[in-house]
Request: fold
Amino acid sequence: MSQQLRVGMVGYAFMGAAHSQAWRTVNHAFDLPLSAQMTVVCGRNESSVAAAAAKLGWSEHTTDWRSVIDRDDIDLVDICTPGDTHAEIALAALAAGKHVLCEKPLAGSMADARAMVAAEERADVVTAVGYTFRRSPAIAAIRDHVQAGELGETTLFNGRYWCDYACDPRGPLSWRYKGGPGSGALADIGAHVIDAGQFVCGPIVSVSGAVLSTQIAKRPLPLGAVVGHDAGPVSDEVGEVENEDAAVFSARFASGLSASFSVSRTAFGMPNGLAFDVFGLGGRASFDWHRPAEYLFDDPQPEARTRGARQVIVGPQMPYFAGGYPMAAPGVGSGNAEMFVYQCRAFLDQIVGTPDPLPPNATFADGLHTMEIIQAVVRSAQSDGAAVAVPTS
Ligand SMILES: NC(=O)c1ccc[n+]([C@@H]2O[C@H](COP(=O)([O-])OP(=O)(O)OC[C@H]3O[C@@H](n4cnc5c(N)ncnc54)[C@H](O)[C@@H]3O)[C@@H](O)[C@H]2O)c1
Reply:
């Protein structure tokens, strides 16, 4: 029988549900030497967390995250709470010798993020940040094309993450609208497309031309708990939105490749529009999350007369497909749930040190670098679009 890995998860709402689905599935999708046990889930409200534990499949529940960390029978802490709570929980978990899987963005402040990276470096456990798009078979395949030089010298990356969850001015003033510049659309969704860009094309070293904007300056206060991007009952009282609804900026990768990014949570009609194009002198690849089971690939084959982009449908020939899909056949699709399962699998592989494991998850250091890029974007916006270097270490 495989060895048990006892998981305690903090936060059970939007992301907590996705992580729970992955923990429930990972040992049923793959043969792994570690068996994840969904031991305890934590939230702030007793009756809500009890209901969540029953629904999501956790054996126990608690309202105190410190009690999760104090337990000797917890090996891994999975953090699915708002960004500004990550550091305190992660630092305590690492100090107690637990493995830590933390949702993005890494932290609510640069100081907290740096403390987490320092703790990661000291700790003899596995740490990861939830940049799940790295586990998309299509995105990983595009990365392979770029890294194998199959597009030729790369010439342009254009990335965007357009969502519409903030279009309704009656949407409640949840934690997503609080914090300074950079903590809005940039941290919530921009972080994903920045990480995806770096996953495909390598590190970003500078940004420029940033413009941040907020279309809806005040929002009604929520009357109860808000889950994810949901609407919900609101008060007649309003509060200030403290961060950006949208951002655009240019960037340069270490390779010299130039890029443009645009991010918005007020892009009408775009429920979850992460997409990017990467061009080279001899090819192009394009991905759009609204069509997650495919990507476009173009190169000079076979001849000018019939040249054109090909729709490549993901299947078992791609990274992050084999073993993770109930029907291992081309064209069965690929979605969000599978990416979270692969994230858990990679985490378990990393703990065991499986020979030839999946490429590892993003580290806290990767999470800090993404935050440094977002901070550079904010500084560029505050100085009329000036170029701002991003620390490379
Ligand atoms: N990887 C992704 O695709 C993705 C998608 C959405 C959100 N996220 C990230 O996941 C994290 C959570 O976002 P969400 O949308 O699930 O938020 P949410 O508001 O839906 O849920 C937050 C959860 O945290 C709990 N919580 C808050 N403070 C707590 C505390 N002090 N102690 C215990 N529990 C506490 C709440 O009870 C709730 O269960 C954020 O960092 C967010 O950026 C990642």
